[in-house]
Each structure stands twice: as C-alpha cells, then as structure tokens.
Amino acid sequence: MAMLMRISFLATPSKPPSSFSDSATIYQKPTPSPSRFHWSASSRRRAGILAMADGPVPTVLVTGAGGRTGQIVYKKLKERSDQFVARGLVRTAESKEKIGGADDVFMGDIRNAESIIPAIEGIDALIILTSAVPKMKPGFDPSKGERPEFYFEDESYPEQVDWIGQKNQIDAAKSVGVKQIVLVGSMGGTDINHPLNSIGNGKILIWKRKAEQYLADSGVPYTIIRAGGLQDKDGGVRELLVGKDDELLKTETRTIARVDVAEVCIQALQFEEAKFKAFDLASKPEGTGTPTTDFKALFSQITTRF
Ligand SMILES: NC(=O)c1ccc[n+]([C@@H]2O[C@H](COP(=O)([O-])OP(=O)(O)OC[C@H]3O[C@@H](n4cnc5c(N)ncnc54)[C@H](OP(=O)(O)O)[C@@H]3O)[C@@H](O)[C@H]2O)c1
C-alpha cells in the first residue's frame, strides 16, 4: 500500500519541492488542539446572523468532516449547540467512527451528486473542507536524499474532487436555498506555475480556483478562505492576517493553525462583513502581535470579492 503523505502546502512558494523535508509532511493521525477562543453563549447569540433570536437554530453541514480541519469545525459546531445544529459529511464508515459516529454524520462521496443529497437536505449553511489528497509513491527513501514523487488515485484527481466535487456541493446547497457557503481553498492560486500544480500532474490550485469562481458566480452568499500553509498548532493565540492576490506569500507570515482556520469558518457565518468576500488567511508568529478576537473587525478589513 502506498505510504500516505500529506503535502505541506505553500511551504516552498518559489521553488519546486526538492527534498522530503520541504515538500511534504508525514501524515499523522489528526490531533486537533483545543481552541482557546472563549465566546459566551450570550455574546455568540448576539453576534449570530444565521441564528435569529426567535428563529430556529441553523443547521450547518461541514464536508470533509473527517479531515484534519473539517473535524475541528465539526467539533466546534457541536460544542456551540445553542447556536448551531451540526452536521458532518464523510466518505467512509471509518471516518465517521473517527469523529464519534453520531447520527448527524452522513456518508457520501462529493463526486457523486446524489450521494450527498441526504446530508444537504434541510441545511442553512455549508462549510466545504473537502480536498483531493496526493499520495506518495512507495519506495521513497529520505535517507538517500531522494525527491519524493506523488500521485492521485484514479478518479481522485483534483479535477474530480476539487472541481466536480465542490461544484456538486455548491449546486446541491443552492438547490435547497442555503443562506451561505464557506469554502476553504488555498493561497497560491494566482500563479498557474505554482509548484503545487505539478504535484501528481493534478493542477490542484487551478481546479480549486475554478470551484472558487463557480461559487462566487453562484449568487449564494459566500466566504472564500484561501489559507496559507496549515499547521497543527494551538488556536486563538496568534494575530490573524487577511490579504489578497497571494501578497502574503511574499512575506514571512504565510502559515496558519488549522484550529484558527476552523474558527474563521464558523465566525464567517456570524458576520455580514464576511459575506461575498474572498481572502487570503495567515497569522503572525505566536508572541508577536495581538491574538485576534474581534472577527467583525477582521472581516471588515477585507475588500475583495474574489
Ligand atoms: N495542507 C496545507 O498546508 C494547506 C494549505 C492551504 C490550504 N489547504 C486546504 O485546506 C483545506 C483543509 O486541509 P486539511 O489538510 O485539513 O484537509 P485534509 O485533512 O486533507 O482533508 C480533506 C478531506 O477531504 C475528504 N475527501 C476527499 N475526497 C473526497 C470525496 N470524494 N468525497 C468526500 N470527501 C472527500 C477527505 O476524506 P477522507 O478522510 O475520507 O480521505 C478528507 O476528510 C483543503 O482544501 C486543503 O487543500 C491546505
């Protein structure tokens, strides 16, 4: 069986991966760090725009709920049950079990539009955290200084997952009248020659960008979060940075904790300032700057619709 590897997105923005250490991180069993954001129920209710004071609590589906960021979002939604009814979509029974196996976790494959209908029916908002995942070809020996090679499994190329799969989700969500779709994408999409596009010949950033454009053109209120390199670190302890057009990639601040991305996904549902916006997201190193707690102010800084 091929060794599972996860590409460390955006670790080397200006040159192709040349070694084990700068191109990939070994897949680890997800161990999400607890968020350090503490929002009281009342302040969250005040901030909520999806959850109207006298209306029903909105149902929010997160797809890729077994993934490393998706499972943090799912957990946070469950923890805020005064504010959201959580739902998750995973691909396998194994992933469902991994996140607790509750009845609110649906199984489906985003490449198959019909299979996701039960999960989508009745939702008010959708958070898309699915992505094609390249695998490393077997036989790679980092001790010999070799370059790892990656591939996508048949029918699991970015074209199928990041384009057709995201399009299927957007179409299904639109057909049930969702009030907002949050899509997590990646920085790097302005450069068609970005090294990530050559991995497994998948053109991953190009297909992700196409899905982002489709969402922006859909008419559904949207928030497109183009994350920097994702890290499994504590959340709520760094100042978050928003940007546009991959400008952050040219700086030293181009990474972000998965927990922080998860929090931004949920906060985006709570502020009008996050709607019809697309932005890059990274953070300052811990210990510099002021940890972000005012998300309305963060979203207000964003001026870009795409
Ligand atoms: N890694 C980085 O540094 C980085 C940087 C910037 C942006 N991003 C983006 O940020 C997002 C979150 O990244 P992550 O590392 O947290 O994600 P991840 O752990 O790779 O999770 C991806 C999820 O997509 C699911 N998926 C794949 N194909 C599917 C299909 N056909 N049907 C249903 N589900 C499917 C996977 O399900 P299974 O568990 O069943 O495989 C997995 O749960 C992704 O869009 C990623 O591209 C990543």
UniProtKB/TrEMBL annotation:
GO terms for cellular component: chloroplast. GO terms for molecular function: oxidoreductase activity. InterPro entries: NAD(P)-bd_dom, NAD(P)-bd_dom_sf, SARED1-like. Residues 64-270 form the NAD(P)-binding domain. Pfam families: NAD_binding_10. Belongs to the NAD(P)-dependent epimerase/dehydratase family. This is NAD(P)-binding domain-containing protein. It comes from Canna indica (Indian-shot).
